[in-house]
Amino acid sequence: IRQDFNATFQQVAADFRAMVKVLFDGGDADLSLTDPENPDQTGIEITVRLPGKRRQALSLLSGGEKALVALALLFALLSARATPLCLLDEADAMLDETNIGRFCKLLREYGRDTQFLVITHNRGTMEMADALFGVSMAEEGVSQVLSLHLEELREELLAPAG
Amino acid sequence: IRQDFNATFQQVAADFRAMVKVLFDGGDADLSLTDPENPDQTGIEITVRLPGKRRQALSLLSGGEKALVALALLFALLSARATPLCLLDEADAMLDETNIGRFCKLLREYGRDTQFLVITHNRGTMEMADALFGVSMAEEGVSQVLSLHLEELREELLAPAG
Amino acid sequence: MYLTQLEIHGFKTFPTRTKLAFPQGIAAIVGPNGSGKSNLADAIRWALGEQSMLALRGRKSEDVVFAGTPRRARGSMTEVALTFDNEDGTFPLELAEISIARRAYRSGENEYLLNGNRVRLRDIQQLLADAGIGQGMMIGQGLVDQVLAQRPEDRRILLEEAA
Amino acid sequence: MYLTQLEIHGFKTFPTRTKLAFPQGIAAIVGPNGSGKSNLADAIRWALGEQSMLALRGRKSEDVVFAGTPRRARGSMTEVALTFDNEDGTFPLELAEISIARRAYRSGENEYLLNGNRVRLRDIQQLLADAGIGQGMMIGQGLVDQVLAQRPEDRRILLEEAA
Ligand SMILES: Nc1ncnc2c1ncn2[C@@H]1O[C@H](COP(=O)(O)OP(=O)(O)OP(=O)(O)O)[C@@H](O)[C@H]1O
Ligand SMILES: Nc1ncnc2c1ncn2[C@@H]1O[C@H](COP(=O)(O)OP(=O)(O)OP(=O)(O)O)[C@@H](O)[C@H]1O
Ligand SMILES: [Mg+2]
Ligand SMILES: [Mg+2]
Fold this sequence. Notes:
By secondary structure, chain A is an alpha+beta fold. Chain A has 5 helices and 6 strands; from the N terminus they run H-E-E-H-E-H-E-H-E-E-H. By secondary structure, chain C is α+β, with helices and mostly antiparallel strands. Chain C has a 6-stranded antiparallel beta sheet. Strand 5 of chain A pairs parallel with strand 3 (about 25-30) of chain C, so a sheet runs across the interface.
């Protein structure tokens, strides 16, 4: 069992480093075990050094940078084991246009092995999806869901919606 | 001193209720003191009932609804005392198009007595502002700031930016 | 293996029976603030056995039952059903289609169903673990806090699910 | 009364002297992720006397000094200066223009200046309190946590600033 954990950990750490390079166009990252001898109790430390910057505490990173680091870890975990289903609720909320493009490209790539359901307010993400569901409240306090096409959605968004 | 606090509190509570009605097109809200006899130690409870919904714990509200409630409280505090300077760092991040419109309308209104500096990724908010500053990193790790006009910004956003 | 259908009834802001049919690809859920998008995600996580009411933004079990509006009485129960295509045998069951459902009553009881039969929560949990589906990949509306800001010990759980 | 100018030197990602001239109206700050927008806001809050490094996303005082890049050596000090138009006398001083500045050295010392003269932190704090400027209205990149998710006791402080 410990072999499994350590082997998985090494793979995820390697994928995490690679994923940070992809999402930030460079830079470096590490996952390390706080207690390698005790896989049942160990914690996992995350350190990141972004291009052109010194290695710094995660706290000093920007809102969008932290979101990208979190996504890098998620995609690294998916590289180790492609879970069939993944829900992402506004994971792109903090990202600028360029980073949303990177996020969408990764979803298409990992989407071959994992079914993604993404909640979003971003049009780039909507355009990337295969199917679109619009949730609305025609009656106060009561949700309804419609299967939408992108052209319908643009009208919906432009209309004075609730 | 206690008179001041209680008088202020009553006013902010009334403004908060009014502001929630403005931001949600209805509904009700309350601020209440947990310990009215001890203004130096009292806490402040917040309860909200949105249109068409039952009074519920703040936790059950949506991301955008919580942001609007927070903004309602901030604008209520500004109604009680118009602080000269207010910084808002991506306060609109969770809001949909309609709510950003409401947010911008309130900023213009309160902007007569308060100087707002808003950090944003949203074009509606950018269009509402009187002045626009673009922050970028031509050299890695080094910020530079340019005073921009909206037409310049659209090109900037469309170009493959960092 | 993929989720083909979600059926929600009486869950949060879905008092009436609502069906969504999912493609094999990527689905995006959109709509105004407060319309019910995260509630939809909560329904999926709840049907997959989520035990933490905090993770579903509530405090007690009945918080997920439709609370009522001025026009509609509150609900007395809720049911959410997930249907999966299992042609590739990811679920270790000899069935091409698998359905997992959960019911809760305002009194607090929870029931779990597999292909229409009452089972125990741990049966659902075992089945999902075998299929590699875990709550670790259900990311709520606070990505950074959920994935990064955890204590180092909690991060290990994310990794164990990937092992 | 309004902020007319911000001058940043050696603060976080601003190693060289940077000046911003503000209008009397609403200013929007835009740019890509990680470009330095929140760092700009941090500089303003820091110059206004913010004592909590946590509020500025750091741990120790030197975390706001430019940390260096492969191409540039790290800084040994930082200074941020704010210039205010005081024609309406909001600041209780007989001056049409007021400048508040703060310096910090990598060694950890902090200095506070009012119109070029060394003063104590509490002098700056008193002046800002008289003018009605408070950290309560400096909202960082986590609106809901900062304004709503506080414990009931912390909310009172917001109210006291408005009194
Ligand atoms: N048990 C319940 N009964 C009725 N309404 C509920 C219940 N639980 C939550 N709600 C309501 O659901 C609404 C939140 O819905 P949800 O979180 O799905 O919105 P959302 O579409 O994700 O919005 P956003 O884009 O702002 O995140 C709140 O207004 C809340 O009052
Ligand atoms: N003392 C310092 N020296 C050098 N760089 C620093 C220092 N402190 C923080 N940084 C860097 O500043 C960057 C964050 O900048 P900032 O938070 O201003 O971005 P932002 O423009 O607000 O982005 P976002 O839109 O994602 O919120 C991080 O990459 C961090 O490494
Ligand atoms: Mg939501
Ligand atoms: Mg920022």
